[in-house]
Amino acid sequence: MKSAARILIIDDDADLRESLALYLKIHFSKVSVLGDPRKVHEALNQEEYDLILLDMNFQAGRNDGQEGLYWLKHIKELRPEIMVLLITAYGDIDLAIEALKSGASDFILKPWQNQKLLAALLRAYELKSTKGKLKQFQQQQDKSGNELIQLLENSARSASSIALLQQARRVAETDAQVLIRGENGTGKSQLARYLHLNSLRKDAPLVSVDLGAIPENLFEAELFGVKKGAFTDAREDRSGLVQQAEGGSLFLDEIGNCSLLHQQKLLRLIQDQSYQIVGSPELRHCNVRIIAASNSDLELAVKEGLFRQDLYYRINTIELKIEALRNRQEDLEVLIDYYLDYHNRKYGRQLELETDQRAQLLAYTWPGNIRELSHSLERAVILKDGHFEQSLGSGASSMPGNEASDLLSLNLEELEAQHIHQVLNHYQGNISKTAQHLGVNRNTLYRKLDKYQIQHEV
């Protein structure tokens, strides 16, 4: 099967370019030739090419390769995405280095072996394809990042949210450790990404890990990586999340769920920027910015001996507190419009809100915060073709409108207990579905069920 690469051969030797084209047409779907490099601008405007084979000497008696370098730079200015392979009869090392610095993908010596030439062209095309995919991925990431920044800044209408983003922007410019506090579903991971996108590390990775979701016996392997042979199933080296975040940011979500043993490992990582791969005695150093988050009372955990005080101080250089959605009424109005529009676009629907339906959403206290709001509107968009029904029903955790106003008088713990009870009933006692809906892991849900003495099947 022929490669889809589109190739242009530029050489003043008619016999060479025609014989080369004849060979390459066996392996590539499109091969064109050009005898005069001065016509390359016209050729590139008329056709799209992936690869160019460019001779380095055109004028008789010249063999210094400067013509080839000139046209190489010209082509890269016109079409930087095209991979250019230079052809020369003179294997000068300094010339080859200069050519590669100027953007050449490879350096082909005459006379060449056809199989080696073919391999060089296929390598160059594969590299171009990979670069194209990476560029597309980066563009998607940039678009996604810009949308997130726009969402957070546009929805920050309440005094607390405006102050929070102002502080976040100032902190983002530094490498200070940040601890984000807030209830489940308030957008802690969004704020972590906002910090990363506004930092000097924005072009490097942001790697997120939910520490509460990693099994105890896999903690070090997931975070720090594994050396081949470290244990029975370790058949190859595997990088950890710290290594994947090199140069960027590492977001440690639910750090309060981390055991004391693993807190010690995290302390060394944060304090010394060092860690050990499982199965290796070598101490490795890293360059990552740590952003942590928790919805638990870490101060109480420190007092009870469940969380290391030294680690608490290390992660808490700067604390950013996200208010619950029920305390940000001004933000809620913007967020309703955003998530309704988002899910309408996602599913190709045109769900609209009547005035009374919007009022019902605004009256509800959203114990699941932004996550619950988004899920509720998504469900409504999926299940309804045109409009909301008078009651949100399953679209808002089975909370009838009249109950929403009654709950305003309840304190937070009563509200949380009632909400958990309703969601658990909605899923007929299914712990996994209830935990997923609430945005917590099963262990956290079990603790809350015991705390509020809610009956459940074990």
TrEMBL record:
Modified residues (4-aspartylphosphate): 55
Pfam families, per the entry: AAA_lid_14, HTH_8, Response_reg, Sigma54_activat
Domain Response regulatory: 6-125
Gene Ontology biological process: phosphorelay signal transduction system; regulation of DNA-templated transcription
Keyword check for Transcription: yes
Domain Sigma-54 factor interaction: 154-382
One Gene Ontology molecular-function label: ATP binding
Tagged with keyword Cytoplasm: no
SUPFAM superfamilies, per database record: CheY-like (SSF52172), Homeodomain-like (SSF46689), P-loop containing nucleoside triphosphate hydrolases (SSF52540)
Family matches, as Gene3D superfamilies: 1.10.8.60, 3.40.50.2300, Homeodomain-like, P-loop containing nucleotide triphosphate hydrolases
Keyword annotations: ATP-binding, DNA-binding, Nucleotide-binding, Phosphoprotein, Transcription, Transcription regulation
PANTHER family: ALGINATE BIOSYNTHESIS TRANSCRIPTIONAL REGULATORY PROTEIN ALGB (PTHR32071:SF113), TRANSCRIPTIONAL REGULATORY PROTEIN (PTHR32071)
Record's protein name: Sigma-54-dependent Fis family transcriptional regulator
Organism of this sequence: Croceimicrobium hydrocarbonivorans
